Amino acid sequence: MLKQILAGSTFLVLLAIGSLPAHSQTPATEPTEPSTQELEPSAQPAPPAQPQPAAEVSSEEIERFARAIAQLQSIQQETQTELLQIVEGQGLTPDRFNEIAEAQQNPEAAPEAEISEAELQSFEQAANEITTIRQQTQARFQEAVQSEGLEVEQFNQILAAVQQDPALQQEVEQILREAEPAPAQPQ
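The structure corresponding to this sequence follows.
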């Protein structure tokens, strides 16, 4: 769970440039979202901030970081469900949505089936709704980090340190395991 987040620096990029981390943890059956460039060709995101070299991280900071990660995971799961509902609500399957998105991004990529005008309109409506959800999710992510007493830059620095230090990774994973509710015992 934590390794999925840490492996791709998903949250680092998310907090640095404001994109939803649908690609790293999204199963193949859920839609990926179109990029900002796809929806607004003139909008170019700023390059992600370069993480600082690993710094010393206190136990208190690791605790706050782990609590923030738990909140971010919850928000991400809710968002993925909402994105799936948006796509399906427009009459598209996640695979078809992704196929149309790929064809939009790469005109040389030929979709398996011709894209009808109705599908294109459904895709565009879903993409617009996804952009709105993505902006809302970005704000929720930032609020979650700040609610734990961390600034986004500080969170990113801790993330970089955790990515580089297996002992810190284990510490965060342990905190997350301890925070998980115990499974209900059968009666």
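Residues 1-53 have pLDDT under 50 and may be disordered.
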